[in-house]
Structures are given as C-alpha cells and as structure tokens.
Amino acid sequence: MFTISTIYFLIYLSIFIFIGLTSSIFIVPLLITSFVFATLVVIFGFISNSTLNLALWLFFKTNMYMRKTINKRRIFKNQKQNSDPDADPNATPIEQDENVLELNPIISTTQENN
What we know:
Largest sheet: none
Order of helices and strands: HH
Helix content: over 70%
Mean pLDDT: 81
Family: Belongs to the OSW5 family.
GO biological process, one term: sporulation resulting in formation of a cellular spore
Subcellular location: Membrane
Low-confidence stretches: none
Main location: membrane
InterPro entries: Osw5 (IPR031430)
Number of strands: 0
C-alpha cells in the first residue's frame, strides 16, 4: 500500500517539523526578549520626554519670576535715585534699559548668530 514516495514524504515532513520546532525554541525567546526591550525603549522615551517638558516648564517659570524680580529692583532703584534729596540736580539719571532681559535669550542669541 505504501509507496516509496509516501515514505519519502513522511521522512521529509518529520524532518521539516523537527527543524521548525528546533528553530522555534531559539526564535520565540529572542522575539520575547526583543519585544521587552522595545517596550522599555518606548517607556523610557516617554519618561525622558515628560521630565524634559517638566524641566523646561520649571525653567521658564523660574526665569519669568527672576525677570520680574530684577525689573522690580531696577524700577525701585530708579525711583529711589529720582527721589533722593541729596542727589545733584544736574547729574544725568541712570538710563533705563527696557531690554535688560529679553523674553527668550536662547532664541535671541541663535537669531543674532544667524
């Protein structure tokens, strides 16, 4: 009943299944490991982006607070100098520089360099 071609077919099929199972023993763990590392890359990328945005927000908030404080001190100093009774009336007043601090020094310095 069995012909020689059927025997060869069963031999080749068993070899194919054996090689497929053997290779899957190595491939599946490597695929799982690759998936885990890819997931960690995405998670750490998200965390990195979030902390960068938080740091930028904190920097700009602090920067604006410092600018307001410096401008208040400059205005107070100019008012004090103008109201000083001992000051010489012929003396030239301190120039008020409106651009003591620019709004965004990072952008303005890069624009000046271009």
